[in-house]
Amino acid sequence: MSKTLEIKDLSYRKNSKKILERVNLSLEAGQIVALLGANGAGKTSLMRVIAGVAKHYQGQVSVCRESDEDARKQYLAMTDNLAYFRDSVKIKDVAAFYQGVYPDFDQEQFEQILEFMNLNQDEKLGALSKGMKEKLIIALTFARRAKLYLLDEPFSGIDLMSRKKIVKSLLLWKPEDATLVISDHVLGEVATIIDEVVLVKNHSVLEQRSADEIREQNESLEEWYEGFYEGEE
Amino acid sequence: MTNFKSVFKTMLKQKNKQALAYFAVGAIVSLVATIFFIFRYGLKNADSAAIGIGISAVVLLVVYIAFEFAVVLQAHRVSRSQTWQLVPAKKLDLLSANVLSGTISVFFMTLLCVVLFFFLLIPFMLQAKFEGNLFLGMGDVVKNGLFWEGLVWFILFAFVAVVANICFFLFLLDLTSALADFLPLKGWTSKLVKVVILFILFFLGGAMMSRIGDVFSNFATSTFSFALSSKGFSYNSNASGQGLGDLWMLLLATAIYGAIFFGGEYLIMKYLTEGKDKF
Questions:
Q1: What architecture does CATH give domain A3-227?
Q2: Measured between alpha carbons, how far is residue A46 from residues A42, A224, B82 in Å?
Q3: Are A100 and B9 within 8 A, CB to CB?
Q4: Are B69 and B22 found together in one domain?
Q5: Per residue in B214-241, pLDDT tens?
Q6: CA distances (Å), A133 to each of A106, A148, B248, in order?
Q7: Chain segment B64-93, per-residue pLDDT in tens
Q8: Angle, nearest 10°, between helix axes B91-127 and B46-80?
Q9: Which domain of life does the UniProt lineage start with (chain A) (predicted)?
């Protein structure tokens, strides 16, 4: 299998604070990967570095063998919280923006996902609940034909039914050869669909293991994950 | 990869929308002011008409200046936003599109304001109660070759000046944010430090611009200025025959400081500016 993502000796600091140190990671094509770690472990920063949004890091990051920061963006789709858009902007305007700037954005697929998520194109961003907005973000991300999808805490603060709907949509719209990375501090609904687990702790990747292997050796993925934080407050 | 054209088109659409919103505010206020003066004092009263038009002109000017600030802030928002930084475009394309779309939206706004201002003048022009030379000699002015030459120079100079100013302020704002990112500060202390850095950079940048201006003015053999007179747009030179050469000097000086800040901004975008997901 070919490598979708390769990270070598990555270190990253922000506001003079160490965020990531000597991270090495390699992900194969077609996998669904859970990027786990406590709040503030550096999961979001790691995704932002991969996506070329975070700067002044050291080390090498390549997506589909492309390490140039601008060029590797064409292979990846990362969830964006849409903070750039004002509340008065309609969903269809955001979609028009995506269609304008992403050559791989598929409007038809976007409409299908939107329908699946029960969202209306004429609704304004300000009128959307947190869960609806998260669904929209997923729809925009998966309307692109990318090789690497980075979902940054897609379930934070949303209800169970919405979480289930999002998980369902991931399975429906993820291209077979694409790699999907989902970051979160809990496993929750994604536990059943993941192929691999990457654990971020102490500013680095502490573990990278196959989900099946963990399931064989432990009662559950959750139990294995919680084991790393036993005795900690 | 996303090309310059797509990025530019999307940015221009957003900025023109913003221009229309600002223009709508200016248009409503100045229309109300003009209509009030027409109904209150009538078209035949030249003094009150002049006050009404004067108020409208001031309103349009204030809205226009506010819009210029908004263009710079919007350019800063674009260069700092995670949404735009995720777009698979080259940094140079993003920056060029950001500056150029801002410049064009400023020209679009100028055009709208000028058209509205002439629209507001129409009732008074039809009454022909204005004694000013501005309308009476307009036909002759337009036929004058100097008018067209002056207008072309004016537009060219305005274009370069707007580009250079957007680059200057964008550079200052982005460098301030990037420097603040290095400091271990949060909350109001971070904001305060940002303001201090911004002021220091503003004075340093201003001093540099004035130094470039000085260097070029030493080469120039005369001083000049644009003027809107009874002859229309024209440039005035105090040394006959040297005006055009000097105009080139001023244009060059403006283009050079614009290019310096554009280059500086490119380096900041490439190496320092992080995408922000909160505004």
A1: 3-Layer(aba) Sandwich (3.40)
A2: 6, 22, 14
A3: yes
A4: yes
A5: 666 665 544 445 444 444 445 554 544 4
A6: 19, 22, 53
A7: 899 999 999 999 999 999 999 999 999 999
A8: 170
A9: Bacteria
Residue A157 has a pLDDT of 73
Distance CA B125, CA A129 (A): 54
Alpha-carbon distance B84 to nearest alpha carbon in chain A (angstroms): 9
For residue B273, report the phi and psi dihedrals to the nearest 5 degrees. -75, 120
Q: In this predicted model, what pLDDT tens digit does every residue of A146-183 receive, in sequence order?
A: 999 999 998 877 788 888 888 888 888 899 999 999 99
Three-class DSSP category at A25: strand
Window 178-217 of B, Cβ < 8 Å to A: 181-186
CB contact at 8 A, B8 and B101: yes
Q: How far is A68 from chain B (nearest CA, A)?
A: 10
Beta-strand runs (E) in chain A: 3-14, 17-28, 32-36, 57-63, 76-78, 148-152, 179-184, 196-201, 204-210
Of A14, A100, A103, the CB nearest to B181: A14
Within 10 A of A26 (CB to CB), how many other CB atoms are there?
12
Q: What interface predicted TM-score (ipTM) does this complex get? A: 0.93
Domain boundary residue among B116, B131, B146? B131
Give CA B209 to chain center in angstroms. 17
Judge: A102–B87 Cβ closer than 8 Å, yes or no. Answer: yes
What is the token pair recorded at A180? Answer: 């999907």
d(CA B78, CA B276): 10
- Residue B178's identity, in one-letter code, is A
User: Does residue B118 share a domain with residue B40?
Assistant: yes
**Domain range enclosing B121:** 1-131
- Both B86 and B144 in one domain: the answer is no
Weakly modelled stretches of chain A, pLDDT under 50: none
Q: How far apart, in whole angstroms, are the C-alpha atoms of residue B78 and residue A70?
A: 16
Burial class (CB in 10 A: 0-12, 13-18, 19+), A9: exposed
Inter-chain touch A80–B82, beta carbons under 8 Å: yes
Number of structural domains (chain B) is: 2
- Asked if the Cβ–Cβ distance from B272 to A97 is below 8 Å, we say no
